[in-house]
Write a structure and sequence with these properties.
531 residues; alpha/beta; Helicase, Ruva Protein, domain 3; four-stranded antiparallel sheet; elongated; binds adenosine-5'-triphosphate; binds magnesium ion
Length: 531
């Protein structure tokens, strides 16, 4: 464990202590790691030494090595003797320093050195020795004289002060290190909280409904069972399949996606299970089927609701038995493939109509993910908007465009029958239309968004859809009439129920369904002001 000295030496207190030590004791302060490696800055050519002796030493041919040797020796001594502090003799006779170990959680995190000084006035003999040593090592006589003259001689009480001040530096470093650790842990914590809150793998969304999905995905990723993902068009079924595969233990193996509506019943066996050479005319070599290609990994069967009954039988067999037989082969082969299936169709309804096998349904529906449509998690719209805006503008090297509250309100109000994909396409369209302008104005939005929720006029039938499912259109109209009615009647539900010719209870159910009560509307308003 080492501390970040290059950051810490600039701390105000440390910096101040360093100046005091230089002023009163003439020493330099430096740090060496727990392995005795000196932090580099005192080796910099341009470093301004306060101490002349140190400056001369560092300019000697082997000056760095001599200091390194001293430091390594002291580090070893401190660690072997389990001492915290020591006064030491350097390579140069009579020249001393002090060293104090930084201990964090019982482990050494390096040593602080204060160097050089002398402890009593040198005798002329000692001075001659020291001068000789310096000159032997390459110093000029003049430099050696000045260096020796400027070394401070510390008496007993000065040494005590020095000890105390160096200890203060060490304590400051330890405290600051703990503080940084605490903050980093908090940042990590916040980051991971936000991480689970706003996204999972590549999926964005902070709504409660998406949080539940993320939590469920955590469990699904750890399991090996078959998964069925259901949801309307563009709700992110493929993203879920990818998230499951890439967060599972199979992430390093293949994820093979197959759109089941593309299967041709005649070639089904060969496509699913492969064939051996000569199995039929045209089978000129062995061919691997999907199951074999996905071996060890995940097979994503997209649009499973579009499979023919013939295909369903074949899938069921391989899922039940865990083996398959390539066309023309005699030995069945074992498969180790995780199946993830997805559909936007109502498989239960298909079972009733005899279009989907019930036994296959239960085989694939071991774990189920039901993705909510975007209109049921409107609080995700603005964050998805920001996400796509940033991503798409970055692709064309532009800064993200700004959106007015009014525009965003329109976007949030719209029912998004095509879900996230429709929102993504709309943003792409807006960026193209906006060209160089920095702000999005209502005129840049699609007509369907501008018209949505506008009062219906007898003449123009403005805002009403004229294509798509009748049920969706009726619900849209219902929502608009109730929303407008509530505003008009000042949220008096009895009055509005009377006006609409329905019971109060029925109105309340509908208000809940479309989230039109005062609280939901206020929440939405708040969301908008937060953007
Ligand atoms: N939660 C989300 N976060 C970010 N992007 C999303 C999210 N959900 C969907 N998308 C994006 O919307 C588009 C449609 O997603 P995807 O293809 O996964 O949907 P799908 O449910 O498989 O659609 P379909 O039923 O049409 O096959 C993709 O571009 C995808 O990246
Ligand atoms: Mg899809």
């Amino acid at each position: 464990m080492a501390i970040n000295w290059s950051e810490m030496r600039n701390l105000h207190v440390v910096h101040k202590l360093k100046q005091i030590l230089a002023k009163w004791f003439g020493v330099e302060l430096f740090y060496a790691s727990e392995h005795g490696k000196i932090e580099g800055y005192i080796f910099d050519k341009n470093y301004q030494f306060q101490n002349y002796f140190m400056k001369i030493q560092m300019n000697l041919l082997h000056g760095h090595d001599l200091l390194n040797n001293d430091v390594e020796k002291i580090t070893e001594y401190l660690s072997e003797n389990n001492n915290q502090y020591t006064l030491f003799d350097s390579f140069f006779p009579g020249v001393k320093g002090v060293a104090s170990k930084i201990v964090i959680e019982g482990e050494s995190a390096g040593t602080i050195f204060a160097f050089p000084f002398i402890t009593e006035t040198l005798t002329s003999e000692e001075e001659i020795n020291l001068k000789r040593k310096l000159i032997e090592c390459g110093s000029t006589e003049n430099d050696a004289n000045i260096a020796i003259k400027q070394l401070k001689s510390l008496d007993k009480s000065e040494k005590e002060y020095l000890h105390e001040l160096v200890e203060l530096v060490v304590q400051e470093l330890v405290t600051f290190h703990h503080e940084i650790e605490k903050r980093e842990a908090r940042i990590l914590e916040l980051n991971s909280e936000l991480g689970t809150k706003y996204r999972y793998h590549t999926m964005i969304g902070k709504s409660k409904k998406m949080q539940l999905i993320y939590r469920m995905l955590e469990r699904i990723c750890k399991s090996e069972s078959t998964v069925l993902i259901q949801g309307e068009n563009g709700t992110g079924k493929e993203l879920v399949a990818k998230a499951v595969h890439y967060n599972s233990s199979r992430k390093d193996a293949v994820l093979l996606a197959q759109n089941c509506s593309a299967f041709n019943d005649n070639l089904l066996d060969s496509e699913l299970f492969g064939h051996v050479r000569g199995a039929f005319t045209g089978a000129i070599k062995d061919k691997k089927g999907l199951f074999e290609m996905a071996h060890g990994g995940t097979l994503f069967l997209d649009e499973i609701g579009d499979t023919s009954l013939t295909m369903q039988v074949k899938l069921l067999r391989v899922l039940q038995e865990g083996t398959f037989l390539p066309v023309g082969a005699t030995q069945p082969r074992k498969v180790n493939v995780r199946i993830i299936a997805a559909t936007n169709r109502d498989l239960k309804g298909m079972i009733v109509k005899g279009e989907f096998r019930e036994d296959l349904y239960y085989r694939i529906n071991v774990l189920n993910v039901l993705l909510p449509p975007l209109r049921e998690r409107k609080e995700d719209i603005s964050i998805l908007f920001d996400h796509f805006m940033e991503k798409k503008c970055a692709e064309i090297g532009q800064p993200p465009k700004l959106i007015s509250k009014k525009c965003l309100e329109k976007i949030i109000d719209y029912s998004w029958p095509g879900n996230v994909r429709e929102l993504e396409n709309e943003i792409e369209r807006i960026i193209v239309l906006a060209g160089d302008s920095k702000t999005i104005i209502p005129e840049m939005l699609s007509q369907k968004i501008l018209d949505f929720g506008e009062p219906v006029t007898m003449m123009g039938q403005k805002g009403l859809r004229t294509s798509g499912s009748l049920k969706d259109a009726m619900e849209e109209l219902e929502e608009i009439m109730i929303r407008e009615g509530l505003k008009r009647c000042n949220f008096n539900k009895s009055r509005l129920a009377k006006e609409l010719g329905i019971s109060r209870a029925s109105l309340i159910t509908k208000v809940e369904k479309y989230e039109l009560d005062k609280r939901s509307l206020e929440k939405k308003k708040k969301m908008l002001t937060a953007v």
